[in-house]
Structures are given as structure tokens and as C-alpha cells.
Specification:
Chain lengths: 252, 252
């Protein structure tokens, strides 16, 4: 292996997660079955949906009574009124509601479509999965569980796929972080030409989350991967460090 | 190596690129010196700055005469008026110019800070690097050069670090693509529960670009990496497929 090589190792064979299931047990069981030894220096990246499922964040759409607002907007844009209702109920604030697209800011502070609510990879379209209540806390719990079982510090990133202004396609981004600094802050450091960097902090937690997009895919029932060889900066970490304060944001 | 593992291999030891230098020669020379054999299935991810340098897209700041607009705004926000002037000259349109941040849409269609112009990693602060004129064409040329030398199809991604609304930190994104489909379009496919996906296309070219952020860093003079083991969809590819048409965008 050449120096500096990063490996992204998908964890195959994980069982479908049900409410109450242990993510740590599912990850370690599948890793063991695949003869994948989790090592010091590894980072665990998890798709958020298994976390949400394990935490029981599943809602049956038949139980949702859409408001008049949700019904009329959904009818106009051929959307599912129950899903729109659920997204509005779970929004801290509506950012845009136009052209058939509902962008909200969630109580966590994420700006995303439909408050992060999704019906794919749940049960065929009759239920929706909400975001975890506090994905940082979920990541910390999983990290603590790994430490108990493995006696290792394994940082955990919880990833969800987000759309972006101006660009097509979704990319995975971090919604929960534990055990590493989500930003690699380069401000004040000098480049090799002696120039001092001013505005450069790199969102490494989001770049790590992106690896789940490449290595896990949407269909292969691979909701987790191990990143090996990335020289992370240890720290408590929190996704809140990745959220721009409103007063510094130009696109509210 | 476990099935599905992706490797990101930084290419160390590349010489500093000068105007007119061949990127293909620099990459292949460094790869050979590092005993890194580029293989079928590999994707080459390049930081844009070496492309821009090889194409002579370097401007001496001393030669820039800032307009009154650039001077007054730069003075107010303690910015370099020459850099602001250059960014305005290279902007197709100003998207935001507020709170010390200048966001423009470049003639390529990218929405980014300072028209993508950067003074880090150039010559210590006296010169700036502009974006390549047409990074898709640059990527195609490099891919064609690799095909001539190696007799292999090696897709090429050219990456630059972009800020984002709502989130802190930069992430690498694709500004030029050749040889693969930048979007993995999953619309119409069914998940394992039989649910048909509606809105899911994944911006894999941007996720591949992110790997350069993790594997190359800003200081290690590693402007290129090889991604091995990612099952890309071959295609002509173009970054234009990643740019959302204005009529579908809610954040212009």
C-alpha cells in the first residue's frame, strides 16, 4: 500500500435494522462475519437511516392527517400530501416552498428538502423515516459502544444525502459527528510559498460522509463503511460546528 | 482486500507545475517514481490549480488596477482590492456581495466565492490563479493523453474547493469531468422494499472530487490522487450535468 492511501471498506451483510436494535452489535457482527477487523485509526461512517430506524423514528403515512395547506400544495405539484404534512410538522422553519420543492430548516439546523424525511428503503412506501432527534448524541453512543467492545477510539460520522443550491444531484453530508474535528482549520497556516491562508477550513466530516455515497450506494443494503488511513484530528466533534450561524449566511 | 473496497491513492512527488507543462507527463512521472501502476478502472482526480497553472491562468496582482467599486468594497471589508477587481472581471454575474463575501456565478456556471480565484499555493501572494477556461476540455485532453500513453480509459475529474450556503467549511467539488457519468441517476429504480425512487440522482463526480480533499490536503504538494475500485458508469461526462438550470433553482 502506498503511503497516504485511504481505504473505504463497505460493511456487507448487515441485517435490516428494527426499532430497538443495537447498531454497534449489527456493525460488529457483520464486520466479524466479513473478517473485517476494525482497527485503531479507522472511522465508522453510517447512513442515517439505520440510526433513525433503530431509534424508532418511523411514521406510518396512513396515520398522518394532512392540513389544507399541505393538501393544496401537494395537489398542485403532484406530491404526497401526507409527506408534505410530516415535513412541515418537523420543520423549524420553511426556507423555500416553490416549484414542487419544499426546503426547510430542521430543529437541528440542517437546511434540506422535506425536513430530511424519506420513504425510500423503509417498507415500500407506506412509512417514512424521520431524522434522528440528535445525531451527534447517536454518534457518541455508538462510539462509546465501540469503545466498550473493542477498547478502541473509533470516531463515528452519521451521513444523510442532501441536495444543494446551484448543483444537481445529492451528496452525502454529515448530520452527526463524534470523536473527530469536523473542520480541518487551516487559517493562519502558510502554504509552501509562504502565503498565509485566510479563509480555509475544510469540512472533512462532510467529505468523509461522501465516502458513504461512493462505497455504500443506495441499493446494496450497505449502510456502513469503514474509512481507514485518513489522518483525522481527534476531538469531541459535533455537527453544530458545520452549521453556519445565520448572521454569517447570505442565503437564508 | 474486502469486496467493494475503494482505495484513494495520493500521487506524491509531482514537480511544481509551470505554464506549458504537461499534466500527463507530471502525473505519469510521479506515479512511476512512486511505483504506482495506473490500472484499468482507476479514476484520476486532480486539483484544479495545477491545470490552471499549466494553462498559464496566472495573473500578477501588481498589474491589476482596481475600479472604484472594488476599492471601496475591499476597504470596507479589509479585502485585497486587486483580488476583488479580478473576481468581478471574471464574474458572469454577482450573486451576493455582502458581509465581506463576494459570491459570483462564473461564465462556466459555477456559483462560488471570488469567481474561483485564489492566491494560495501560487507564489506567496503576489499572483492569483484563475479557473481553467474550460475544465471539461482540460479533463478530456488529459484523459486523451493518458489513453495515448497507457492504452487505458482513465476518467478524469478536476476538483476545486467550494464553500456552501448554510454549512461551514469548504468541500472539494468537480469543475471538470471526462470519461464517466457525473450523476448516478437512480430515478425509477426500486429499492429492496419495492419502493420506486423519485428524486434520487447522486452527484458521484462531486463525491469523487471530495476524495481529493481527504487524500491530497492543502499543504502536502499532492495535487492528484487515483481512486481505485469505484464502479463508475462510463460516459463522455461533463460538469454541465452537475449545474442546475436557473429555472429549477430556488436560490439565485
Amino acid at each position: 500500500m502506498l503511503p497516504g492511501t485511504i481505504q473505504v471498506i463497505p460493511i456487507h451483510g448487515m441485517a435490516e435494522i428494527q426499532p430497538g436494535d443495537s447498531i454497534v452489535a449489527a456493525v460488529l457482527g457483520a464486520a466479524q462475519a466479513a473478517q473485517l477487523a476494525i482497527c485503531s485509526g479507522d472511522v465508522l461512517v453510517l447512513k442515517h437511516k439505520i440510526i433513525a430506524k433503530s431509534e424508532g423514528r418511523i411514521v406510518r403515512l396512513a396515520e398522518i392527517k394532512p392540513s389544507a395547506r399541505a393538501r393544496s400544495w401537494a395537489a398542485r405539484w403532484k406530491r404526497d400530501a401526507r409527506l408534505i404534512e410530516l415535513a412541515l410538522q418537523n420543520a423549524g422553519r420553511v426556507v423555500r416552498m416553490s416549484k414542487g420543492v419544499l426546503i426547510t430548516q430542521t430543529p437541528h439546523g440542517f437546511v434540506c428538502a422535506n425536513s430530511g424525511i424519506d420513504v425510500s428503503n423503509v417498507d415500500g412506501g407506506t412509512s417514512a423515516v424521520l431524522l434522528p432527534v440528535d445525531a451527534d448524541a447517536s454518534a457518541r453512543r455508538i462510539m462509546a459502544g465501540l469503545r466498550r467492545k473493542l477498547k478502541l477510539h473509533i470516531p463515528v460520522i452519521i451521513a444523510d444525502s442532501f441536495g444543494r443550491p446551484w448543483r444537481e444531484g445529492l451528496v452525502e453530508a454529515a448530520i452527526g459527528v463524534a470523536g473527530l474535528k469536523p473542520l480541518r482549520d487551516l487559517r493562519g497556516r502558510r502554504d509552501q510559498h509562504g502565503y498565509t491562508l485566510h479563509a480555509t477550513a475544510e469540512a472533512v466530516a462532510d467529505e468523509l460522509a461522501s465516502l458513504a455515497g461512493l462505497a455504500c450506494g443506495k441499493f446494496e443494503r450497505v449502510p456502513a463503511c469503514i474509512v481507514r488511513g485518513f489522518c483525522y484530528q481527534p476531538g469531541r466533534g459535533s455537527v453544530s460546528q458545520l452549521l453556519r450561524p445565520p448572521e454569517r449566511d447570505l442565503f437564508r
